[in-house]
Amino acid sequence: MAKRHTTISTGSIIMPSDSEQRIIAHLDLDSFFVSVEVLKNAALKGKPVIVGGRGDRGVVASCSYEARRYGVRSAMSIKLAKRLCPHALIVSGDMEDYSKYSRLVTDIIADKVPLYEKSSIDEFYIDMSGMDRFFNSELYIAELRHTIMNESGLPISYGLSKNKLISKVATGEAKPCGTLTVPQGQEKPFLHPLAIEKMPSVGDKTGTLLRQMGVETIGTLSQIPMEYLQNLLGKNGTELWKRSQGLDDAPVMPYVEQKSMGTESTFENDTIDVDFLHRNLARMVEQTAFEMRQQHRLTGCITVKIRYSDFNTLTKQMVIPYTSADHILLKKVKEIFTKLYDRRLLVRLVGIRFSHLIPGNYQIHLWEDTEEMINLYQAIDSVKNRFGEDILVRGAHASKGAVLDVRAAVKKIKGGGG
């Protein structure tokens, strides 16, 4: 794949040395899952490749640019993808490999820059503000990209500008395997000719609504009064207007691997009842995973804690592929617990902790699960949001009479009105 470097400018680019000027880079690994598969099997290079479930009921987790030319997109059903591109090569994914390469790239970035944000498994923001007093920022980020590609073998694109919004859009325009710098003062000339769908936060519904109004470009959107967009789309309308002007003051949030969430439970009576311990672990996993999904986070590391009746406390940790799915996390937690637990001793406390958190929406194993499984998780979270976490509980930890019953929950929704 050819490497491209582009600069938008009316002349040569010289980034001012004023330390007050923000310089933000956005890096995105191109077709990340597919790129990892190509590293593992060079025969896939240049072919229409789909990473996802092999059965018709599965969904597309990722696809190559060659497959995208036929209209294949992520989250599309495999059945439809095969209809659009019958000769596509379908590969079962390996989240463990993808997490490994994600961590490799993270380590390279962490070693080279003072402040970065890992916004997803394959995306990063870097705050380079003030660095021009010592380095040429554009040259520095280009060298960092070169290092990442050399050490990981993965293609990566970047955008460079004064804020996160412009840089992210620029990365999208630079792909595949390219770079794009938008210098100070050129934000509107860069943004305004682009289709409204290129604007982050403009989804299918909003895009369709705007196009029905005759709004096809970001430039046209920028000419609509903010008050009108606010009346039409609420708070999102105000934010959309600001973005159409190229305005974004969101900071790069420092990435801290050790940030975590978890819970623990101390029992009234010490116990060696393994079923009882498993039920408590299941309850804690479900509660914490739900909290992670609410905060749009994924975990890459699990810690299980056991405290015995003599107050001797043991913990065991396992690095896992990034996820926030109950059924995946519970399986791993039980696996750790089995290795850690000494059945001869009474247990006073058990606990779990999920760490190595990164931003990300619910990342189910798309190549293993069906659309029905994804829809089920979305439905369960929706019910819990509306009626409380206790309305649905997993059978593995349910008390008598409190079993997961989707039909009962649906009946309550219908009876509740609204």
Instruction: List the total number of helices.
Output: 15
Give the structural class: alpha+beta
Output the strand order for the largest sheet. Answer: 1-9-8-2-7-6
What is the ordering of alpha helices and beta strands?
Answer: EEHEEHHEHEEHEHEHHHHHEHEEHEEHH
Rg: 24 Å
The percent of residues in helical segments reads 25-40%
Named at the architecture level, the CATH assignment of the largest domain is: 2-Layer Sandwich
By CATH reckoning, the class of the largest domain would read: Alpha Beta
Low-confidence stretches: 1-5, 7-19, 362-369, 396-407, 409-418
**Tally of extended strands?**
14
Give the arrangement of secondary structure elements:
Layout: E1 4-7, E2 24-29, H1 32-40, E3 49-52, E4 60-63, H2 65-68, H3 78-84, E5 89-91, H4 95-112, E6 116-120, E7 123-127, H5 137-152, E8 156-161, H6 164-174, E9 178-181, H7 187-191, H8 204-212, H9 218-222, H10 226-233, H11 235-244, E10 261-271, H12 274-294, E11 297-308, E12 313-323, H13 326-340, E13 347-355, E14 358-359, H14 371-387, H15 406-416
Parallel strand pairs: 1-9, 3-5, 8-9
Antiparallel strand pairs: 2-7, 2-8, 3-4, 6-7, 10-13, 11-12, 11-13, 11-14
Helix pairs in contact: 4-5, 10-11, 12-13
Concise structural overview:
The chain has 15 helices and 14 strands. The protein is α+β, with helices and mostly antiparallel strands.
Polypeptide structure, described:
- The chain has 418 residues and is α+β, with helices and mostly antiparallel strands.
- The chain folds into 3 domains: 1-8 and 18-181, Reverse transcriptase/Diguanylate cyclase domain (Alpha-Beta Plaits); 192-244, 5' to 3' exonuclease, C-terminal subdomain (DNA polymerase, domain 1, Orthogonal Bundle), CATH 1.10.150; 261-416, 2-Layer Sandwich (Dna Ligase, domain 1), CATH 3.30.1490.100.
- It is built from 15 helices and 14 strands.
- Strands 1-9-8-2-7-6 form a 6-stranded mixed sheet.
- Residues 1-5, 7-19, 362-369, 396-407 and 409-418 have low confidence and may be disordered.
